[in-house]
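It is worth pausing here to work through a concrete case rather than discussing structure prediction in the abstract. The textbook approach is simple: state the sequence, then state the predicted structure, then interpret. We follow exactly that order.
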Amino acid sequence: MFKFLRDKVKGALDRISKKVEEEVPEEKTEILEEVIEKKKDADKKISVKPVGEEEIKEVKKKGLLGKIKETISTKKISPEKFDEIFEELEIALLENNVALEVIDKIRDDLKVEIVDKPISRNDFSSKISDSLKKSISDLFDAEKIDLIKKIRDKQEKPYVICFVGVNGSGKTTSIAKVANYLKDKGVGVLMVAGDTWRAASIQQLEEHGKKLNVKVIKHNYGSDPAAVAFDGIKSAKSNNIDAVLIDTAGRQQSNKDLMREMEKIIRVAKPDMNIFVGESITGNDCVVQVQEFGDFVEIGGIILTKSDVDEKGGAAISVSYVTGKPILFLGNGQEYKDIEEFDKEKLLNSLGF
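Step two, the predicted structure:
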């Protein structure tokens, strides 16, 4: 996952370090380090090597205040030089569909950390790598959602989730995966075949329902999807089912009529959460789609499908920061079990941090 991005970023950082080594002059900096006296902590029974006479003499040679003066070689990056060398990293990020807003943030974060700061020549690579990791980690500061807790905490059942997205994004399969995930957590679930337009969409969801032993509420093709959603919620209430997952037809955000139809579904179903399902491999297009769908309905969270074949990772890195909405799950295969809760530490590890 994200192999192309990982390799590109690593290559950019290597080239940046080489540029700094070759083009940024060294500065000699004097530093003072405290000499901490060793002692034995009898109460805590910590055994330490006693300070010998030779060590005491050495400390006294360094000065009465017990400080050591050293001269180290450092490099200091000017704002102009930073802008020049950052181009390497900027190109690597752009090539991997990272949003411009994210690149600007990373640039600003790195500038604060390394510009006009004396950095040891041996520490520069690790310094910029650590700063980059922190900057990327901060991209996922959108409030994390505990979906199971939200479902269980709702007093009046069911908890209603509506899944929206563009054509072919994998909504129906994602709904089945989420249904399986909820069942494994002991949550009762029902699915609603609200996509009454796409050929075989109802049969597809019914097939998932049979395999998962999950009830599916459906009407005929061409029916009003809002009416199907209403009946699904009514059935869940009467059967004391915890959660309702509503499938909807895929639609392009530019099709105003279909977007208004989606608004009607939301008005009737009054979902507790709307989840946008988008393909990780579409990069910045996915980010734009979430924003434009958000103009019509309140998006509560995001599922990124096909993350297992996404070598660039631009959508995963960008979408939460740009939209302010958390990534809930990553789809990473065709099986029902192939969905995982989003974990930013795992993503950072996949990027080599």
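Step three, interpretation. The CA atoms of residues 112 and 218 lie 56 Å apart. Residues 1-24+79-140 form a domain with the Four Helix Bundle (Hemerythrin (Met), subunit A) fold (CATH 1.20.120.140).
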